[in-house]
Automatic annotation (TrEMBL), chains A, B:
GO biological process, one term: response to stress
Keywords attached to this entry: DNA-binding, Transcription, Transcription regulation
SMART domains: HTH_MARR
Lineage: Bacteria, Pseudomonadati, Pseudomonadota, Alphaproteobacteria, Rhodobacterales
Molecular functions per Gene Ontology: DNA binding; DNA-binding transcription factor activity
Short name of any one Pfam family annotated for the protein: MarR
Domain HTH marR-type: 7-138
Protein name as annotated: MarR family transcriptional regulator
Recorded superkingdom: Bacteria
Organism: Pararhodobacter aggregans
DNA sequence: AGGAATTAATAGCTATACATATCATTTCCG
DNA sequence: CGGAAATGATATGTATAGCTATTAATTCCT
């Protein structure tokens, strides 16, 4: 049957390719950051003071996973965590000034590598792929949650 | 910028969706197997006596990862590993009779869940998506390596 | 008010995923 | 032939990724 010609396998390989492109560009630019960490920083930056569950919901993570991601971001000094005054179970997170600076430096880099993720596709094909991907996830085209 | 509207993020979520659909169906059918393990079994079944590096190359794994995957398949009694007579560094793997039986039982299940991975896409859209995905990976449409 | 249900994190467990280093073996080449 | 390079596995370390259970705190409901 050749499972490696099937949907799940193709998607797994796209994920590999995407992760590798991101990691390579980030490393070359001198940043030790993963695509997951960048996405978390983006969500935090857009919603300062959001709690961890909120971050998880925004970028579709498991809540148990997000804690470790944020731990590492705190370890780098890019994120600060504090106990919410409103709800003492919750941990509010926000970017530190250093985190803001790193994010600002990464942003153009990340924008620039987007096309590379989809490799040999033409601009029209890339748009078609992204549109189909959004539909396959049953997600609004551009959703600012 | 909302990184979670970008290519890498969409692909990651598709990967999540794909993994979850596979896991859910496999579990409901009473099998404790991941999509990665299934892909490895498929490659091994198509190439009995292949070595681990060969399996890794076929399905685009990291060589360091494949050992653990095969360890778990051996633990379930579905794969047998032996030292190659031709090259004593290499470990030849093949499905056991039990592994063959499990694979045969999984195969129709896996075929049936393919469409679900791409959720709300129409048949034509699914075909278009898969075609674009293959092109994005610079892979032959159907390649039996 | 007070117990029940819910929710936010965390901890522990399993499974990818990949980089690097190491070891054993084989192949390549002068 | 014999040392160098290459190759197949394994070991180690880091980073997702998600499940379940647990703890702490809040909210809901009677």
């Amino acid at each position: 049957m050749e499972a490696y010609a099937m949907a799940g396998h193709l998607i797994r390989r796209l994920h590999q390719q995407s992760t590798q492109v991101f990691g390579q560009h980030a490393r070359e630019a001198g940043f030790d950051v993963t695509s997951v960490q960048f996405a978390a920083m983006d969500a935090i930056r857009s919603h300062p003071g959001i709690d961890q569950a909120g971050v998880a919901a925004l970028i579709a993570y498991d809540r148990a996973t997000i804690g470790g991601v944020i731990d590492r971001l705190i370890g780098k000094g890019w994120v600060a965590r504090s106990i919410s005054a409103r709800d003492r179970r919750a941990r509010e997170v926000r970017l530190t000034p250093g985190g803001e600076a790193v994010f600002a430096a990464l942003l153009p880099l990340v924008r620039a590598l987007q096309d590379e993720i989809l490799g040999p596709l033409s601009p029209g094909e890339r748009a078609a792929f992204l549109s189909l991907a959004r539909k396959a996830l049953a997600v609004d085209p551009v959703q600012d949650a």
